Amino acid sequence: MKHAVSGDRLQPLSYREVRVHDPFWTKYVALVRDEVIPYQWEALNDRIEGASPSHALQNYRIAAGEEEGAFYGYIFQDSDVTKWLEAVAYSLASVPNPKLEQLADATIELLARAQQPDGYLNTYFTIGHQDERWINERDNHELYCAGHMIEAAVAYYETTGKGKLLDIACKFADYIDTVFGVEAGQKRGYPGHQGIELALVRLYEATGQPRYLKLSEYFINERGQEPNYFRLEADGRAARFGQNYLLREPYYSLYKDGFAYNQSHLPVRRQRHAAGHAVRAVYMYAGMADVAAAFKDPELIEACRKLWDNVTQRQMYITGGIGSNHDGEAFSFDYDLPNDTAYTETCASIGLIFWAHRMQRLDPDRKYADVIERALYNGTISGMALDGKSFFYVNPLEVWPQACQRPDKKHVKPVRQKWFNCACCPPNLARLIASLGTYIYSQTDNSVYVHQFIGSDTKVNLAGQSVQLSQQTNYPWDATIDLAVSPDQPAAFTVAIRVPGWCENPSIVVNGQRVDIQAAMTKGYARINRVWEAGDVIRIELTMTIKRMYAHPNVRVNAGKVALQRGPIVYCLEEADNGAVLPDIALPEQAPLEARFRPDILGGITVITGEARRSSALGWEETLYGETKRADVVFPIQAVPYFAWANRGEGEMQVWIRER
Amino acid sequence: MKHAVSGDRLQPLSYREVRVHDPFWTKYVALVRDEVIPYQWEALNDRIEGASPSHALQNYRIAAGEEEGAFYGYIFQDSDVTKWLEAVAYSLASVPNPKLEQLADATIELLARAQQPDGYLNTYFTIGHQDERWINERDNHELYCAGHMIEAAVAYYETTGKGKLLDIACKFADYIDTVFGVEAGQKRGYPGHQGIELALVRLYEATGQPRYLKLSEYFINERGQEPNYFRLEADGRAARFGQNYLLREPYYSLYKDGFAYNQSHLPVRRQRHAAGHAVRAVYMYAGMADVAAAFKDPELIEACRKLWDNVTQRQMYITGGIGSNHDGEAFSFDYDLPNDTAYTETCASIGLIFWAHRMQRLDPDRKYADVIERALYNGTISGMALDGKSFFYVNPLEVWPQACQRPDKKHVKPVRQKWFNCACCPPNLARLIASLGTYIYSQTDNSVYVHQFIGSDTKVNLAGQSVQLSQQTNYPWDATIDLAVSPDQPAAFTVAIRVPGWCENPSIVVNGQRVDIQAAMTKGYARINRVWEAGDVIRIELTMTIKRMYAHPNVRVNAGKVALQRGPIVYCLEEADNGAVLPDIALPEQAPLEARFRPDILGGITVITGEARRSSALGWEETLYGETKRADVVFPIQAVPYFAWANRGEGEMQVWIRER
What we know:
InterPro entries (chains A, B): 6-hairpin_glycosidase_sf (IPR008928), Beta-AFase-like (IPR049174), Beta-AFase-like_GH127_C (IPR049049), Beta-AFase-like_GH127_cat (IPR012878), Beta-AFase-like_GH127_middle (IPR049046)
Helix content of chain A: 25-40%
Domain Non-reducing end beta-L-arabinofuranosidase-like GH127 middle (chains A, B): 448-544
Protein name (chains A, B): Glycoside hydrolase family 127 protein
Domain Non-reducing end beta-L-arabinofuranosidase-like GH127 C-terminal (chains A, B): 547-658
Radius of gyration of chain A: 25 Å
Distance between the termini of chain A: 59 Å
Structural class of chain A: alpha+beta
Low-confidence stretches of chain A: 1-7
Oligomer: homodimer
Domain Non-reducing end beta-L-arabinofuranosidase-like GH127 catalytic (chains A, B): 17-437
Shape of chain A: globular
Number of strands of chain A: 24
């Protein structure tokens, strides 16, 4: 069951309604389908040579009483299985695959058998830790795992129409609803790692059961109230097990100075500064936006907007990366955006997209789609190698491989790692890419919004007509987009096309007639309101010049530096093209730059070339400090898209280039 | 007893032979005498309010059987007492103070009573850990503490003529000589924290007993031989206490990947790259230079020279700071010299001076005195507030106070700390400053070297004559030095005056007659060979222009940046003078700069002023990244000497300034 679209409320089209056929993205979709999902299945079955065993499916078999043994893995190991199921669901939506569906069905059966009579489902606790249920929500990821299971259930139900996993999810959610809440005998708790909030809203949308929405709202409203639940919980454990027990809790040190790490330091409605673990934060903000939209809750909407401003105006990298602090994988303070020690977890950028997507629903302002685009084309897909076989968790903006030996940079890897152990970012990328269709369009009763320029087909009901939309483009390399708009019958409605923030001189032509964009613009969308007929074509030309981007003066590390951007793509210099000691390269302010598509490297990319300057090391051999300024020589540079870095072996990389 | 000066062997004049009366340094000497030494005495007696108790003297009383109780403090707590005694000795040499001498004498009596019959003296082990003697040299600092005691003993003997502490030291050293060595039944060990090597050479020089020199040589030669002694030792502990015991050893993690942390990863003669804990390293290199000089050991000399080149050409900050890695307080790899996460411990710069001083003895090349000067006027005294009451252990070259909250910068303090707990740097600074006379002159049979320009008087025997030398200067603010050379009788000898590496156009005039410096120069010293008579005056004019200093292109963090230096003084920008967001300031290449003495700030310093540019934050409020380059406005800057930073409250600071 889906909410009816009502009036001006923006409703995203689902991945199920949108078929992606895009030269840029189809490669990624295929990688996820052909590489990532099968690899993940092998991993879940402990068949990857050289990798530590996942044990995740075996945990379920043990919990179901079908095998003997102990739980093995992270406390959130279950979520590896449900993340895989969610990615499978999206993948099946675009390309049916009966064999894969069969594996998924069998896995769901296993989950059903592992579910406890009361609805509880978490193998860590079922296998030998029955009495530890709900005693440490702060660290134990029970509600987090439940959230991923719910998301998988909704996706699998939507895609296949099969209700088995949805039933499991509802049964578990109903049980959770009895455990947590403000009634007598209930725990006034909430998740230590957020995620279930947005999952419950999806469950509500899929089932129409308001209790799931209310449970989500409860988690959001309760969070950060005093006395802090996690403190009460810890006091309870201390009373039960003794103070020394607390010292052994894995994240103890993160809470010593308060609860910002998991955003329970303040009631969420009072939060204005994004703080703590970045993935937890943006998952929560996404859930807040969902609940705010559902209840039209102005206070919660205001908190979402203020947090949005804080993140995007003070704490976001130009790549759409967030979380500049390795310690706690966390936000830092305003303008603290170091390039070489950034954490910028792939999952955090993905979560930023989830959040932006929901903010967009609250308010069709292009700033949300701009951020989605920035993260999509830069800080998320940088997480995966071009062959889909290795992954970054951390996406730095500057790398000197030798310096990654330093303990303060040991989290920064100069090459992507095989998918081992903590399987967090790869499956998250998989579900993002497999559900890419979700981010392209949304609609109201009589308007359709085009947020992203991704080759795709969809059909929407507008003004009582079924309207076929077909988008063709070679974006992001090329700035031309053709959008065919074909209603069954001629009808008046609005097509609202996002003019990206980076684009200064767009041109939009309908059937050869130029649209007055200035007049049509509302919050960054060119609203074309006319009677549309079958065969109408909108041609969008987004002049894609090379932009020299500068950072706010308070971003101290980028003082005197410039980043190159063309369209949505942020560029970087790599050692493979420009030799070592990249910081020595300086780009003159007036240096002409040229963009050129090169099919021969990195799977086909547009490179930027130009004449920079660099100094000669001549005469410096034995001199560490000298009065003689280094001789400056002309040096041709080639910049490549940031997302494609580290696909040619280990080497230096930097996004921000000195300007002179 | 002192070695006879023989032929061309360079012999430094001792602090006892040189009276310092210098406008710049006398303030520091007085601070050490009037603030630091008395404060330290109060600390040793647990009379500092708000500080954790030192317990150091009480430990001695307990070890002497005069009080009941347990040992308290760091395992090297004893050295706090002997460092104090050493500083007292130097201070008494310049200003007699019977009351202070009485306190020292009483303390020495206490040490005597705490010494064990076999000569052993370390209160941690004597109080309840008798059976742990010499089982963990890697971590337990037994030989390190012995080294500090020996140094104090030599200094106190030299200064006061009193032999009590020297007797204690000899007795302990004689005992150590029975424990360690290559004979059957001896341990083939060496210190985990070096220092005793150079101390034993001082003991040899004070007593004339070659066994102390040989023991020092043994420690140096044995270090890093295979099988590694610390591994054998650890295996022994594992056999005795079990493997789990090893995991609890404090520095275990530092040794997992080898023994570079304490420089036992290779035999010292084969070491070419400075590695590991910087203070341990330079104390060891100083000991190596001593032993190399004593035995005229070409292989050891070569190792010293190669290590010197590595440190000063690849791993030293422009302030004379060393140790760029917080983890292990250690050297890093070549050219890895981050400004904002530097460790650059005050003690490491002091150790660099100790080492350079000994290298100078091997080879009178000005490069050694240049480094001593660089460290003296910058990276060492930066460790102490101008009022002598607070101290930096870490001396960064760039500070953004808010960023010191970040875990990767938490070792960097934006303001100096009261002297608490690990009392390492403050007493080390005290002994350096109190013995400053040591670094100014050295001599051979018929020449005297003037290494440093510090107002001072001394008397040397040259060519059979007693020669009075008197140096007067307002260095480092002023470039003029008057050196009066007055032999009892006219005599021919050489006065070799260092022309600092930073000085391009020196002028040296003897009794009004210009010296041909080019002709007189040997390894950076202008050698003036003539018949000197009473009343001769050398006027040295070192043109002190403002230098724009650049770093080797491989020092990536300093690309495009300039540091200001005038004479030996390295400058920095502070928020107090220039407002916040210092990295935004850019200094045009051609900007005229002016030096001016300002008696009104920071105790009287020469400031550098000039016109830089900075951007306006106008229009950036809500924009984090934009295409518009920031408007650039003229901005007058004032730079102050680096050593004087952080004496006006908390604020930003940076040494390296963007150039444009």
